[in-house]
Amino acid sequence: MVLNDEMGLNLLKKKIYERTGVDCSKYKDNYLKRRIDLRMKAIGIGTSYNEYYRFLEKNHDEYKSLLDGITINVTEFFRDADTFDAFKNMVIPQLLSEKVKRNSRILRIWSAACSIGEEPYTIGIVLHEKLGPGLNNLIASIHATDIDEKALSAAKAGIYDAEALKKISKPQVSKYFDVVDGNDKYRIKDKVKNLVRFQQHDLISGKKFSHFDIIFCRNVLIYFGRELQHTLFLDFYDALNDGGYLIIGKTETMTGEAKDNLRAL
């Protein structure tokens, strides 16, 4: 049976869900098509979803490669520097001021869809830069999650090339990274690494979290349909402590019921 693009895409969505449990219908079709097309090109299949469907039936390992491509999150250290300036100079002082009033020393941050770790490690660097030795007075933790096991393995290793560090000043590189592999690679130092705990987690179907002071989820929800965006924004709202902060991408907009419960800064 020969299927048109729409029928073929829907069949692939169904097959992926049956095999992996990942509901691709939540993603925008154009985004899915681009990601599937990249995989088809990588393995030498033209433009036929029929042919790719047959390939998946015979090569089950391809599901993992496809899902890695679908869930990819392009990132870098200090991506969107203005966001981290606001985090450093506005969010942290306001939040810690409230914690002093409540006599609380616990600071819990969630980096959702953390990819290979640049975002949570950037958060850790900012905490050190802003608080210095005062960070030791807090029980601070950064919970970093992603659906991609391969990305999480790279994040846990904490080793990056020079290009990934291009937005970090040389003094900061020396302060927070060790040089490895003959000056070609840099490893995040333990004083930052020890703040972060990594966990595999699916934003769409994974367990619900709670009791976070700050949640970062940037440049991820733009790939999802509007209904799923509404659901995830509510999940994030429910996961925040009273007075907590949700930090999203510069091009992303709050939608749905959660918009009424969160105030833009």
From TrEMBL:
Q: Which PROSITE patterns match?
A: CHER (PS50123)
What the entry lists under SMART domains is as follows: MeTrc
Task: List GO BP terms, alphabetically.
Answer: methylation
In short, the EC number is 2.1.1.80
Q: Does the keyword Methyltransferase apply?
A: yes
Q: Write out the entry's keywords from A to Z.
A: Methyltransferase, S-adenosyl-L-methionine, Transferase
The GO terms describing molecular function are: protein-glutamate O-methyltransferase activity
* Residue ranges annotated for the CheR-type methyltransferase domain, each copy included: 1-265
What PANTHER family does its record include?
Answer: CHEMOTAXIS PROTEIN METHYLTRANSFERASE (PTHR24422), CHEMOTAXIS PROTEIN METHYLTRANSFERASE 2 (PTHR24422:SF10)
State the protein's name: protein-glutamate O-methyltransferase
